[in-house]
Structure formats: structure tokens, C-alpha cells
Amino acid sequence: MTDLFAGIEAGGTKWVCMVAAHPGDIRATTRFPTSQPGETIEKAIQFFKEEIHNSGLKALGIASFGPLNLNQDSPTFGYLTTTPKPGWADTNLLQPFQEAFNLPTGFDTDVNAAALGEARWGAAQGLSDFVYLTIGTGIGGAAVVNNTLVHGLIHPEMGHMLIPHDLDQDPFPGVCPYHSDCLEGLATGPAIAARWGEKGENLPPDHPAWQLEANYIALGLANLVTILSPQRIILGGGVMDQKQLFPLIRTRLQENLAGYVPAREILEEIDRYIVPPKLGSQAGVLGAIALAQEAAGSA
Amino acid sequence: MTDLFAGIEAGGTKWVCMVAAHPGDIRATTRFPTSQPGETIEKAIQFFKEEIHNSGLKALGIASFGPLNLNQDSPTFGYLTTTPKPGWADTNLLQPFQEAFNLPTGFDTDVNAAALGEARWGAAQGLSDFVYLTIGTGIGGAAVVNNTLVHGLIHPEMGHMLIPHDLDQDPFPGVCPYHSDCLEGLATGPAIAARWGEKGENLPPDHPAWQLEANYIALGLANLVTILSPQRIILGGGVMDQKQLFPLIRTRLQENLAGYVPAREILEEIDRYIVPPKLGSQAGVLGAIALAQEAAGSA
């Protein structure tokens, strides 16, 4: 009998639930808007109960927006913590599903789960060390090192790294409420919109906004390369739907590193070093399926 | 019978060789200047042969200056690669010792080995995720994630991360031949000497050099925190002998993060979060002993 897994992409705007063995064997999917916690969680539970009658379901994975408490020794492990989303702060995401299904359950951030999905079925197959960066409304990052996700003290917050900002070239002060001109403050979708007075999707591909955007992203990537030495970097998120960014970023990253990291992958094969994700619009919920598989494996 | 390990700290200026069970049971140590490769390696081999007659020696560890080829699938694994040190480029460091002793042999960068030593016996005991940064003639960094050293594509080169550089406050252009004003270009001992026209060790503790130095280091640490989420950061190297830097760096790091990372360790216990190494002047060769123990464990 095929092992089936349940995955939940718990987003701030919508939830996606899936029952699947793997991306080539998807049995059911549903999506619904994120309302209040109790109601939203109940909808997800009902979907799984109807779809599988709890038979043959091997494990569950929850990939959630954050910030999350991922510390298994903490009494509030499995909680959404300080989110500004009304009604959702201090929500226990894990317990209702454990009570409903009593299954091994994986729980992690949306970007960590998406990285795991890319490792299993996408752009990071066969790699032990890589970074997955999503650039959209915010900038989130996941790192896999020696085949395991980086969590550490809490979890990475790569969007908030500090990079050079040439105020003569770009006097825009940045939009991050904490750090003004950290990477997230300079390079998210909202930063582009605030700087140019127009949403990025309305700017033509040859607009100077994209060269500047590529500059900032490539500064961030130089820091990821020097600190984590990844074998590949995957760039996803809404901003990266602007495909003209990829060649600009690759060139600027090589310039930033200036030949210092003597790796063929960077010097000669940069087109395969900086890549888009492969799982596309299902990356989030397939990441949750990957979390479920991990949970089953370690249970 | 006590298991004994051989360790070599292979530096560009001197080599240190040690036979020990652990830091509390050191049987023999020697140090000699680094001359030509053949002669230097032979001295180390002779020392170990005389000290232990190859009996009871469980494994060997080599902690070397770099850059090194650490890719075990490469035909030149175990080589020093492009070092500017005359005579040492393309030196096979591993093979002569394997031929002489036929023992499990650990091989890694000096800073990776030192981090391993701090994990076993020093300032990182009991931690799964930490960073060890040495700030001296250069800036080297090692990261441990989920109890394993980060290697990835090559190995980290944290000194070369790119950080904000306020040219109005500090017009000094930086000394890195590759990146000018990367962290290493702005904050090493040679950068301090070039900026102020005086070696750091001759500047008084209240000289403005140290506030600026703390600023740059704390910018680098903010990036290490946001990218790696370490449970602790150890700061060693000659520049960090200026102990007045520690409180300045701690304060500036908290300011840089601006409360964004909600961890008690950073918000309330920063004195235990940013610390000096514990193994002191023997950190290098004890790191090599730690490499030997790893090699024995995985053999």
C-alpha cells in the first residue's frame, strides 16, 4: 500500500491542504482563505478526515507563516508567536492536529519547508548544502547544511542582513521598520513600490529599478556565499517572477566575489548556481508534504 | 589503555605538534618555524615517531593554514592550494603523514579545527550551533550547524562578507586586494594599522579606533546572526586581545539587530552570547587533536 502524507501550507492569506504520496501522486488538494484560527484549523481537519478517513495516512506536515516557536523543549513549541495578523498571535498550530489525527507531525516555517521540498523533488536534488531565498512582500531564507535545515537559536532571518547601501546612487531610506535599509528594507516588493512610486509588476523589464534590485540581491548573495558556502542558491518569490533579474544578479554576484571563491560552480557555471525553484506554485504545500515525510522517517 | 592522538597545527609561520589524550592529558608538544614543505613535514613525522613509537596512537589531525582542498572526491584532496607562501602552493599535506603512520587522519582549516576544539573543551561545549571568528592578520570564520562543521561548496570565507561602510564617517578605502572594503578589508589588524598609521597594539584602549572597529565587527556579527542563527559567537585572534572591544561589540550588535531576533540570549544575556575562546594559545593544536578524535570516531 502506498504511504500517504498530509500537508498544510498555512499562509497569512490562504491555507492549502494536500494529501499525496509525492508530487507525482497527488490525491487531493483544497485551498481556502485564512479566517480566524479556530475556524481555519477546523476546515483543514475536516478536509483530511473526509479525504482519507484517517486510513493509510502516515504523517502530517505543517508549513506555516511566522514567527514560530520551533524549540521542542519549550512549553509553547508549535505556536505562532508575535505575528501582527489579527487573532493569530500565540496560536497553537500543532496541538489541534495532533489531537485530531495522532500522527507524527512535522512543523516548520514556510520557507524551510519549501527548501526541503526543493531538496527532495526540485532544484536542490542531490545537494548537501544550499540556500533558498524568497523575495516578495518580505525576504525569507532557508539554509540546508550537511543535509539538515539550519535552525540554531531560533531560525535564520536572512532578509535582515545588513549590506552596503550607496546613498548617492540610491537615497531611498528603506522600508524595514526595524533596520530601515537592511536587505529586506531595500529589496522587497514594497521597497520597490515605495522607491519608484509604482508596483514592480507595472515597471518595464528595462527599467533601472531592476538593475538596482539585482545589485542589492547580489550583495546579499555574496554574504550567503562567504558565510555558508552553498552548492547552489535558489531564488523564489514574487519579485523573482521578473525573470530579467536572474542574468543581472548572476553577473553582479561574480563581480562582488571578484574571483575570490575559486569554484567552477561560481566562476564558470553560474547559470546553474543561481536558479529559480522547480516546484512553482505548489512549492509551499509540497514542502509541507516533505515535512510530513521527514516526520515519518524520524518517528 | 588511554587512547592517544596526534595533532598538528600547520601554520604559515610555525608548526605546533602535540601528542595528547585530551587537553588535561598532554604527553608531548613541540613547535618549530615553518621552513620548506619537505623539511617541515619531516620534522613533524620524526617528532611523532620519537614520542610514541607508533604504539597506542589512535588517529592524527592536521589543522592547516589555507586555502585547502577539502573535497574528498578530488584527486588533490588534502592539498594546500593557491597560497602565496613561497614553496607551499600545491603541497600535499595529507599523504606524507598517511604513508608514515597509516592512521585515520582528520584534515581541515585551522579555524574549523579551532572551532571543533572549542566545541569539545572550550566556550562552545553543549552547543549545536555556533560561530567562531578569528580577527587578526586576516578574518577567518567557522560555523557549526546541527553539531557539524559547515564546508559546503568549499569552506566559508566569512571575512569577505560585504557590510555597510559609511565613507563620511570612515573614508579609509579598505585593504582587501579583492573587495577593498569587505569586513576583512576594514577590520583586520593591517586595516587598523593602515587607517591610523599605527599598529593597534600601540593605540590606547580609549582611542576612537576601537569604537570604529567594534562597529564593523558588530555589523559582521549581525549578518552571522541573521543568516546562521547561532547559539553563541566566539571571537578570537590578535585583534580581540583588545578586551575593551567586547562590551563595545555587544552593545553595537544589540543596536544593529534592534530587537528583531526575540531571543533571551541576545536581548538579556549578551555577555554570554559574544565571548572569547577558552583554549587560548593552544586552541590551534588542540583543534588538531579534536580533528584526530573525529577521524577516529568515523573510521
What multimeric state do the chains show? homodimer
Number of domains of chain A: 2
Could you list the spans of chain A in which at least 5 consecutive residues all have pLDDT below 50?
A: none
Give me the CATH architecture of the largest domain in chain A, please: 2-Layer Sandwich
Order of helices and strands of chain A: EEEHEEEHEHEEEHHHEHHHEH
Q: Per CATH, what is the topology of the largest domain in chain A?
A: Nucleotidyltransferase, domain 5
Give the DSSP E fraction of chain A (strand runs of 2 or more residues).
Answer: 15-25%
The share of residues in helices of chain A is: 25-40%
Supply the number of helical segments of chain A.
10
Q: State the largest interface.
A: A-B, 50 and 49 residues
Shape of chain A: globular
Descriptive notes:
Two copies of one chain form a homodimer. By secondary structure, chain A is α/β, with parallel strands linked by helices. Chain A has two domains: 5-110 and 281-285, Nucleotidyltransferase, domain 5, CATH 3.30.420; 123-276, 2-Layer Sandwich (Nucleotidyltransferase, domain 5). Helix content of chain A is 36%, strand content 21%. Chain A contains ten helices and twelve strands. A five-stranded mixed sheet of chain A has the order 3-2-1-4-7. Chain A has a five-stranded mixed sheet with strand order 10-9-8-11-12, with helices on both faces. In chain A, a hairpin with a 3-residue loop joins strand 8 (130-135) and strand 9. In chain A, helix 3 (110-121) packs across helix 10 (283-298) and helix 6 crosses helix 7. The longest helix of chain A has 21 residues, at 208-228. The radius of gyration of chain A is 20 Å and the shape is globular. The two termini of chain A are 19 Å apart. At the A-B interface, strand 9 and helix 6 of A face strand 9 and helix 6 of B.
